[in-house]
Each structure stands twice: as structure tokens, then as C-alpha cells.
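Q: I'm building a small set of examples for a reading group on sequence design. Run inverse folding on the following structure and report the sequence directly after it, with nothing in between.
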């Protein structure tokens, strides 16, 4: 509304109404500006800032004034927390910076590496003693090691199949050969394993591998290698289904998703697909869906019953509410912490107070690492639950004092709306405080998409999900993914379907053994 100062009304009530309207507009503009500034700060921090969400627990007591203003006693804040924590002084002690570890020198090279010995001798003249001119005797040697690199090589296997025929001309027989991963294909198991590991474990896209093979004197087009990967994924699909069954047999499954670009030939540009990760006790399995619709996780988890730990994605809500599904929701404190961490620039007092409480919970979890499930559950009930109760009281009190649409107001609303699921980890010692294991499993996808940039089709996304599942599970089991795939691809075509579990990474034994 544009106001003409030269034509103001004489009615005082009308003037007050105009002033109130202008004040309301100004307040709305200030809120909008604060919101935009907050979004800008988040984007700048994401682009240029530190990714770690760390805060010193001592800051909790720097803002005791806020606690007092909200109705509490600032002097008794520390005492109240100490009583709730059961006199556990270590949890309330000041956070000390980690000590720098002294270096211990160069690590010894693995003994399994091939060693080539080169000896250096003194000449006859050099062995003469400079003092008495007599010949010196050998008393030992000084041995040092240096590491050299031997480039990979390609070789051609000629498979000669003997043919026999009868003089009568009635019969001809040819010697059989073992089944190959790709029938009548050029690539053997070792080459297929190398291309797959290079792309899906080492994030080297096919156009770079094309150049690498050219340096070895072989022309392999990226289109050919792309077809190989698709056929390899098809060959491994039955084993992938068994790997999926192993992951979903777990008591707890953590899940998360991340967007990936997928080429859309109808519009000649990319659209967003999704890669989902499901982290079980013995396996990490990925799935690809063209969209983020609920049908993706719904279909994948249709046979799973147990704890499902995820973020607050609304697509899971229907799964939790259906009693026949048997899914128990476990929320993630890392997601809740991130909401308050992003709000600290607009409301540092409340955000820091909440972050300090969450920091205490994580410090407890670090101390209890290595305990059995029963022992961890007992510790959580004794020490973590009082902190959670204190935090809930604080959030409910502050919720009445902040704007619901402010950054901290939305963070408080998110935390309280998911409170039961956030506290569920205290009910079972086998549950984790967050689903960071699922987020870590998506790092490879995030690194990879910076290199291969997009999937060529939905089929390419499915291929990536299958092959990346074996890469991630091999890494969890500390198995060389190349050795695993090389062996499995050479055996799976003739392996009995009833004994397919023998080829899973958790059960795998090389055929040479």
C-alpha cells in the first residue's frame, strides 16, 4: 500500500488503523527477509563451510540466562542435569581437544608383495682399509625397501575346441568348453570384474576406462562396456535377490535415499531418479526407482518385519501405520540435530542448548561402544533417558515462545513430532542412535555421480544398484571386490541354483581354496 503523506486523514482511529497495517506489513517483510537470510546462510555453509556439526558442551552453560528467563533457576541448571545423569561427572566435564598422536614412522610393506632382491657390492679397491690397507671382511648388510608399480596387462585366451568326425560322415563331435558370463562375448570374467570395480567401486566412468584400455593397445568402446555391465547385472540378479533376502533378515534395517540424474530421451535432458540404500546386519543392498514415490520402499520392504530406521520421509508413514506390515519406526537423531544446527544462526541460544543436550547423548554412545545389547540398553535407561526427559521439557516450554515458522520453531516442531521414534533407540541395545550407517553407504553414490554425472536410462540405474550392492557388501566384509567378482562370474553360470548362497560375500570361498 502506497501512502501519500500530503493527504493524511484527520480521523485518529483511521490513522491508528493505517499505522497498524503498515506495522503488520513491516513485520511480515522482516520475517520474510530473515527467512531468506537463513536459507542463504545454509546454502553458503553447505557450499563453503565445514560439514561437521560439532558444538562444545560448555556452551550449554553460557546460555543459562535463557533458561532462567523461561522460568528456571540459572544457578541450579548444572545441578539439575547432574542429578538427572546420576552424578556421572565425566559426561558433564569440559570437552578437551584430542591429543595429537606422535608419528610412528613408515609402515612396513605387506609381506605378501613380490620382492625382488638387488645386491650392491664394493669393488676390490673399495674394500681396502684406508688405515692398514688390508682387505675388509663382510660383517653384514643394510637393507632398505622401495615400492615399484607394475602396470596391469591384458592377455588373449585362445580356446581351441577339438573336432572329431567319423569317416562315414555320419557324426561330428566338438569338445565342450565351460560356460562364459556373456555367451559368445569378448570379455572374460576378469575383464568384466575390472570394468565393474573401476566404475562402481573406484568411480571411474566408462569413457575414462576407454582411454585407459587404449593405452594398453585395445579398442573397447564405452557403448560395448555399458552393454557388458548390463549383462553382468542380469547374470548376478538371482544372487542379488539372495543378498537382498539376507539384508532383510536382519533385526534392524537402516535406509536412506539420494537423487541421481537419469537421461530422459523424450525430453533430451535429465530428470531425477532415486538410489535407495538398505543396510542390514550382513549386507548392504541398493535399489533404484525412477521417482521418490512410496511404491519404491513399499515394494522392496514387503517381506520385512522389524525395526526400520530412517529419516522422517512421509512415504514411510503408511508402512508404519499398517499393523500387518510389522514395521517399527526408529528415527534418526542426526537428522534432528541437523535441523537445530542450521537454526543456530537465527536463534543461537535455543539451538545451542538443544545441540548441547544431543551432544551429551552422543558422548554417552561413544563410551558404551563395544558393550553388549543388554548392557547398552541398561546404560541408556539409566543415563540417556533422564537427558531426553529434560530435553523434552525444554522443547515443550520453548515451543510456546518461538514462532512456528521460524527456523528454530520448525526444528522444535520436527523433534517433538518424531519424539517417540527418536527415543525408541533406548528400548533396545541393538538399535543405533542414528542411521549414519545408511548415510555413509551413500557416499560412494555421491562421489560417483560427480564422475559419471548421470545414468543413461532407468535400466542403467538398476544395473548400478545391483553391482554397487556387491561392491559395498564386499567392502564391509573386507573382501577384494575384483577377486570376488572374477571368481563368481566364472562360476555362477554353472552353479546349482539351490546352492546359490555359497556365492554370497558372507559365505564366499574362492574356488582355488
Amino acid at each position: 500500500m502506497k501512502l501519500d503523506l500530503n493527504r493524511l486523514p484527520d480521523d485518529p482511529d483511521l490513522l491508528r488503523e493505517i499505522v497498524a497495517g503498515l506495522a503488520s506489513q513491516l513485520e511480515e517483510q522482516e520475517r520474510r527477509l530473515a527467512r531468506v537470510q537463513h536459507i542463504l546462510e545454509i546454502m553458503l555453509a553447505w557450499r563453503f563451510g565445514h560439514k561437521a556439526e560439532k558444538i562444545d558442551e560448555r556452551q550449554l552453560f553460557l546460555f543459562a540466562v535463557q533458561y532462567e528467563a523461561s522460568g528456571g533457576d540459572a544457578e541450579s541448571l548444572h545441578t539439575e542435569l547432574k542429578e538427572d545423569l546420576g552424578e556421572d561427572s565425566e559426561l558433564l566435564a569440559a570437552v578437551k581437544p584430542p591429543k595429537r598422536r606422535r608419528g610412528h614412522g613408515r609402515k612396513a610393506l605387506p609381506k605378501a608383495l613380490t620382492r625382488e632382491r638387488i645386491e650392491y657390492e664394493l669393488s676390490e679397491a673399495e674394500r681396502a682399509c684406508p688405515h692398514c690397507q688390508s682387505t675388509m671382511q663382510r660383517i653384514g648388510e643394510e637393507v632398505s625397501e622401495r615400492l615399484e608399480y607394475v602396470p596391469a596387462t591384458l592377455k588373449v585366451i585362445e580356446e581351441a575346441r577339438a573336432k572329431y568326425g567319423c569317416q562315414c560322415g555320419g557324426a561330428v563331435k566338438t569338445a565342450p568348453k565351460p560356460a562364459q558370463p556373456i555367451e559368445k562375448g569378448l570379455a572374460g570374467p576378469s575383464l568384466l570384474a575390472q570394468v565393474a570395480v573401476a566404475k562402481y567401486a573406484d568411480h571411474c566412468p566408462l569413457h575414462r576406462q576407454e582411454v585407459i584400455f587404449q593405452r594398453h593397445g585395445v579398442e573397447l568402446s564405452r557403448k560395448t562396456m555399458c552393454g557388458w555391465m548390463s549383462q553382468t547385472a542380469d547374470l548376478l540378479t538371482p544372487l542379488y535377490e539372495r543378498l537382498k533376502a539376507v539384508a532383510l533378515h536382519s533385526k534392524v534395517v537402516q535406509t536412506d535415499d539420494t537423487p541421481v540424474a537419469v537421461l530422459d530421451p523424450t525430453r533430451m535432458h535429465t530428470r531425477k531418479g532415486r538410489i535407495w540404500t538398505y543396510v542390514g546386519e550382513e549386507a548392504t543392498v541398493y535399489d533404484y526407482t525412477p521417482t521418490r514415490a512410496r511404491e519404491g520402499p513399499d515394494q522392496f520392504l514387503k517381506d520385512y518385519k522389524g525395526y526400520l530406521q530412517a529419516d522422517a520421509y512421509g512415504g514411510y508413514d503408511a508402512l508404519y501405520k499398517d499393523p500387518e506390515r510389522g514395521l517399527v519406526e526408529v528415527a534418526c537423531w542426526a537428522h534432528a540435530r541437523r535441523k537445530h544446527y542450521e537454526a543456530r544462526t537465527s536463534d543461537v541460544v535455543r539451538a545451542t542448548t538443544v545441540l548441547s543436550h544431543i551432544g551429551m547423548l552422543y558422548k554417552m554412545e561413544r563410551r558404551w561402544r563395544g558393550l553388549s545389547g543388554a548392557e547398552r540398553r541398561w546404560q541408556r535407561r539409566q543415563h540417556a533417558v533422564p537427558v531426553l526427559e529434560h530435553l523434552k521439557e525444554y522443547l515443550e516450554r520453548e515451543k510456546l515462545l518461538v514462532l512456528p515458522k521460524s527456523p528454530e520453531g520448525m526444528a522444535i516442531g520436527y523433534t517433538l513430532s518424531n519424539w517417540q521414534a527418536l527415543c525408541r533407540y533406548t528400548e533396545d541395545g541393538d538399535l543405533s542412535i542414528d542411521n549414519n550407517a545408511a548415510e555413509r553407504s551413500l557416499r560412494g553414490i555421491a562421489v560417483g555421480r560427480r564422475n559419471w554425472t548421470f545414468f543413461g536410462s532407468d535400466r542403467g540405474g538398476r544395473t548400478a544398484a545391483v553391482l554397487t550392492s556387491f561392491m559395498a557388501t564386499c567392502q564391509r566384509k573386507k573382501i577384494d571386490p575384483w577377486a570376488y567378482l572374477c571368481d563368481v562370474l566364472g562360476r555362477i553360470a554353472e552353479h546349482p541354483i539351490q546352492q546359490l548362497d555359497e556365492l554370497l560375500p558372507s559365505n564366499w570361498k574362492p574356488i582355488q581354496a
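Strands lie at 163-165, 172-174, 252-264, 269-279, 284-289, 306-309, 327-330.
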